[in-house]
Amino acid sequence: xxxxxxxxxxxxxxxxxxxxxxxxxxxxxxxxxxxxxxxxxxxxxxxxxxxxxxxxxxxxxxxxxxxxxxxxxxxxxxxxxxxxxxxxxxxxxxxxxxxxxxxxxxxxxxxxxxxxxxxxxxxxxxxxxxxxxxxxxxxxxxxxxxxxxxxxxxxxxxxxxxxxxxxxxxxxxxxxxxxxxxxxxxxxxxxxxxxxxxxxxxxxxxxxxxxxxxxxxxxxxxxxxxxxxxxxxxxxxxxxxxxxxxxxxxxxxxxxxxxxxxxxxxxxxxxxxxxxxxxxxxxxxxxxxxxxxxxxxxxxxxxxxxxxxxxxxxxxxxxxxxxxxxxxxxxxxxxxxxxxxxxxxxxxxxxxxxxxxxxxxxxxxxxxxxxxxxxxxxxxxxxxxxxxxxxxxxxxxxxxxxxxxxxxxxxxxxxxxxxxxxxxxxxxxxxxxxxxxxxxxxxxxxxxxxxxxxxxxxxxxxxxxxxxx
Amino acid sequence: xxxxxxxxxxxxxxxxxxxxxxxxxxxxxxxxxxxxxxxxxxxxxxxxxxxxxxxxxxxxxxxxxxxxxxxxxxxxxxxxxxxxxxxxxxxxxxxxxxxxxxxxxxxxxxxxxxxxxxxxxxxxxxxxxxxxxxxxxxxxxxxxxxxxxxxxxxxxxxxxxxxxxxxxxxxxxxxxxxxxxxxxxxxxxxxxxxxxxxxxxxxxxxxxxxxxxxxxxxxxxxxxxxxxxxxxxxxxxxxxxxxxxxxxxxxxxxxxxxxxxxxxxxxxxxxxxxxxxxxxxxxxxxxxxxxxxxxxxxxxxxxxxx
Amino acid sequence: xxxxxxxxxxxxxxxxxxxxxxxxxxxxxxxxxxxxxxxxxxxxxxxxxxxxxxxxxxxxxxxxxxxxxxxxxxxxxxxxxxxxxxxxxxxxxxxxxxxxxxxxxxxxxxxxxxxxxxxxxxxxxxxxxxxxxxxxxxxxxxxxxxxxxxxxxxxxxxxxxxxxxxxxxxxxxxxxxxxxxxxxxxxxxxxxxxxxxxxxxxxxxxxxxxxxxxxxxxxxxxxxxxxxxxxxxxxxxxxxxxxxxxxxxxxxxxxxxxxxxxxxxxxxxxxxxxxxxxxx
Lengths: 469, 306, 280
What we know:
heterotrimer, A: mainly alpha, ABC transporter involved in vitamin B12 uptake, BtuC, two-stranded antiparallel sheet, 19 helices, 64% helix, B: mainly alpha, two-stranded antiparallel ribbon, 11 helices
């Protein structure tokens, strides 16, 4: 249903005209299929009362659904027809426009985008304070900022594995879980502080990265993805079932909160506010957490950028391009893949221990497959291998669904029980498909060379391979 | 001994269901080399379709013969699920043909997330039970300790249906021109197209057949467990995929064999070791099989080309 | 017979079976130090399989492949893990269907080839990340070495272009330069002249001769283009159906009836007849 038949494509140079009858026919067909699909899953809702189950017909909903599909299809036809018309009509500027290479998307974004984004990220709490006009009012936004930055960091960590080394990892969340549980367990049982636990969590996650990475090294493509998925699920299931250690599905609560290098964010005498002689406010801890995750994310970025220019980073990318050639050049592909797994996992572990200190509570349900899928989607949407692309991807995929929260007014249209938030994952799934159809290489698909002799030219994605694993 | 026989029966029943789902994975992987990650959710969707039609037939139309109702439900579920299978291929996979290699897998993950949440939104998050049906059992023999080894009617129906449908589809794939076209596309899609095979249609039909068999599995699953929920697709899907890989991906008998093995392992593991870790066992088997015997029992090993 | 006196590569009783198929059957030959040795034979004779055994992509079913270093010591290639054959035994290779890192620039391709020495210079990444140690200097030297090779293969102007953008002939040359950046003792080339036009073919001959002259690298090559083989090689080994049917200087090979028979597709029993006819 997505690729409409090319209308009148065979009469060559003649301007293409919009064939309304054909479009209508096709749209009707799409509507009929939509009708078939919605029976019975939309047409009848199973309702329960007590032990009984009965059906409630909802033909109105089916009509709306079919109408939407019909309309979308018709619009698609119209869009394609105008596009075909534009392509078929010769344009006087065409020749000159295409000869001059335009600056690539990366160069455009990097020249103005990177300082802009960085500026926004650093001043975000102040901007929000000014816009919202108070600390209490900005709580939601700072919280959202923390959430987005967490995913930016996770995306950057996974980008090392998927984007640079070309190893598709669907179980990345396992390392996030290892980091979170490391901090949770170390701090609750041994009373270690966050700053001691953070490197430990990273090391433990890296260690698990190697343990899990080792057996999967010879796998390629989809098989690698499925095995990493299996490992991710095994970690989660073990966390659920190993109740002696992890307290099972109930999770670990009352994890010590973050302190400002030893100063707790409390209203007491020895608190952060009292030490600096300022008035205590609950938001101080939030803002601290915001800058903490910003620093961690920037550290991830800094290290990744450094690694790309080191032999190990080049070997990762070479591995993505051609593993056999790598072996013939004396590169130990096993070690190279393991370092990618370990370093990616380490950043996942850092992010995990941040997650634990922020929530004060961890449970296995925070580390399900969907999380891995979201992080992967961030990397793919952003453009594999592109740091700024991944950051944009995180803003879109994590920040975007928040818009749904503010669509409460729609319940006036669809009835009282309508909650736009329910549709978050539904739209997310559709978005993933649409992304693959529309721009499978992500928003920023050009690759920036790690070294240059005279000038650095972005490499178009048509040359860049996506890896064998 | 009694427990062993009983678990054997239970395991074979469960294994038949996994085998039916596994065929969908194995055929799609064979023909376009992608893991149809959403197949488990198609199975779950088909169980919902079956549930709703079962309710329509029994409560609204007052059909009294459960067997007849089940047959009708199964056929309807097969048709409607096939339509879903076709539509999914058309929307989410066909535009990606020739795109970069990971695109279909990621798209399939998107479809999987979409389907489970679509069903959740459309039907609610709670477990949906069916009215009790076919509760009769045959006592095969009685052990000394008073433990009855039973074979339920349900189990007979499930195993018999699986066997009949497998025979039909086996014939379809081996003896008809559709099967020949499928095998040709498996070998070399470009060449098949040059020889006048409609590759798109063949791939669509593969998805349709896979979805139809998943619908049979969905109906049987509903009959066996009497309950279904929106997140019932993921874990059976993974297990069926394990079955497909274990049997040798691309091989139809392999998928059924793998399904039976996985079903047996699961029931015996739950009976003799620990029921909590039964999914851990399934995922571990998946990892072990992929790592140590990626070509499975009946598959052909791949040689690295330099 | 220089290759018998001072061989760099000594292959003894090499056999490679894939299931029931015997790709190489009891093959023994030597390649002389400083020689250009050509491995020729009809399609399917097992030439690339020999290469894959030498460069560690296949583990031979039977046999020994010894690389003799200039100091007299030798390494058994069939016992080394794949990547060590390049790094420890100093054997580099190219591929029949070019395997460049097409999404990386020409310069990057040549830097990846110097991975191991740069890795040491970067303190196995640990020092490099912190920005201490001699990595910067080492990278500069690596770029200089790459520049040298780019000038030699006439691709210096395209150093910052993606390797996948280069025309076919340039890709072939780049692959050879990339292999040479690993500083090999033995360079194995799998059909380097395939798909080249006569002018490019000539440039290739010059490049190979200069590699031998300036760097002392021995070359083992598979080639179908007889003009290349006859013009530059010192020693030719002929394979057919996985066995060696002839071994000698180009002029000897040219006149060997078994070689003629293999290339012209004469049945086994007719070989003697052919031999008699041409008076060998």
